[in-house]
Amino acid sequence: MKAELTYGKETTTSLPFQQALDRVKDALKTEGFGVLCEIDVAKTLKEKLGAEFRPYVILGACNPQLAYRALTLEPHLGLLLPCNVLVSQDANITKVAAIDAKAMLNVVGNAGLDAIAQEVNARLSRVLEKVGSAA
Asked: C or N: which end of the chain has fewer Cβ atoms within 10 Å?
């Protein structure tokens, strides 16, 4: 199942959470992205607040070639990088969502970034397709 968000796209998978997370990392690598950071929100909330939270991991993904092109057009673009991909579990459903680079970069107002945003979105869409089709 795919869902369009105002600032991203989401899919679901029948894969267990950890398998989905691993599959996302592999699919990102295939699409030329590296994972610069991995934020385990559930773990952090448990450690800092003692609060229980569902499995929820944010991956900060970056495609170096696309990032370089974008940063040469817009020097302060680092404020909006990296591209976040979210893997979460709600009940027994594993969800994977990715930022909509076009929506994110629209705040900059630099039309030169449009082609880069489209390329990022195409690659992230393929990541979602690979994970969403996994069983």
From this structure: C
